[in-house]
Amino acid sequence: MNNTLQSPQTGSRSLTPNSLKNRDNLLDLRFRQLVNNRQWEQLPAAVQRRFSKRLDAGDTAVYTGITTTVRTSTAGKFLAWITRLIGGPLPYALSTGTAATVTVTEDPISGGQIWTRVYARTHQFPQVIHSIKRFQGATGLEEYIGYGIGMALKVHCSVDGIRFHSDHYFIQLGKRRLRLPRWLSPGKVLVSHLDRDAGQFLFVLQVEHPWLGELIYQEARFADLLPENGHR
Q1: Cα angle at 113 between 92 and 214, to 5 degrees?
Q2: Using one digit for the tens of pLDDT, what is the confidence trace for 65-114?
Q3: Per CATH, the architecture of 27-223 is what?
Q4: Distance CA 149, CA 154 (A)
Q5: 35-64, pLDDT tens digit by residue?
């Protein structure tokens, strides 16, 4: 399969060139505020733009790509399938060379962003993964998957991209939040967004357990919603 990506289609709302130009002048500083200036300035300019793109309530940014690598251990397959009971937050689709889509939608209710990832599967329906990135909690950022379950994240920036490290897991019961002990957690999660020039980036998901080693590893290559200069 040809892995050259074509420019994706527009998001959920139709944006005119003038509205795009005005939007480029407004920055979303929520991710930037999670790291110091030195770290942020290390990031490639394209990564800075992606993580400071201003979206109005209900607006959606769309990135399309190709899943290039997926591997899971036996324990990883079990974890991915058992977590389907709480919405299926981990990839169990093992197809490679197939279409992948990420959409980011501004959520006015949580004040965060809804991330939806769709992975095509050979001869089967695609797998759809939903989560909300909320700018709150002990680390300032958490990934909420529903059913009261979430993961606090720490952010690290470098010259090749931005990385999100799991810090701890929690269960929300009404107004109470219970932090899961480490021995009950599925292990460390690392999500990387690595710049690949020409408006493309690599998404990498890694789940590693302290006793069982690597459980899940996934890579997908995506293209920007718009050309690198931000205008049509």
Answers
A1: 30
A2: 999 999 999 999 999 999 999 989 999 888 899 999 999 999 999 899 99
A3: Beta Barrel (2.40)
A4: 17
A5: 999 999 999 999 999 999 999 988 999 999
- Kindly list the distances between the CA atom of residue 26 and the CA atoms of 19, 22, 157, 224, in Å, as whole numbers in the listed order: 11, 7, 22, 18
Q: One-letter amino acid identity for 62? A: V
* CB 77 within 8 Å of CB 218: no
Between CA 38 and CA 68 the distance in angstroms is 32
Q: Which two tokens mark 199?
A: 């408006």
Beta strands in the chain (DSSP E): 60-72, 99-107, 112-121, 124-134, 142-146, 149-158, 161-173, 176-179, 188-195, 200-209, 213-223
Mean pLDDT throughout 123-141? Answer: 94
- Is the entire prediction scored with pTM above 0.90? no
- Measured CA to CA, the distance from residue 97 to residue 121 in angstroms comes to 10
Give 34-43 contacts, CB < 8 A, sequence gap 24+.
34/140, 34/141, 34/155, 35/155, 35/156, 35/157, 39/156, 39/157, 39/158, 40/157, 42/157, 42/158, 42/159, 43/157, 43/158, 43/159, 43/161, 43/162
Domain boundaries defined on the chain: 27-223
Fill in the amino acid letter for 190: L
pLDDT of 230 > 70? The answer is no
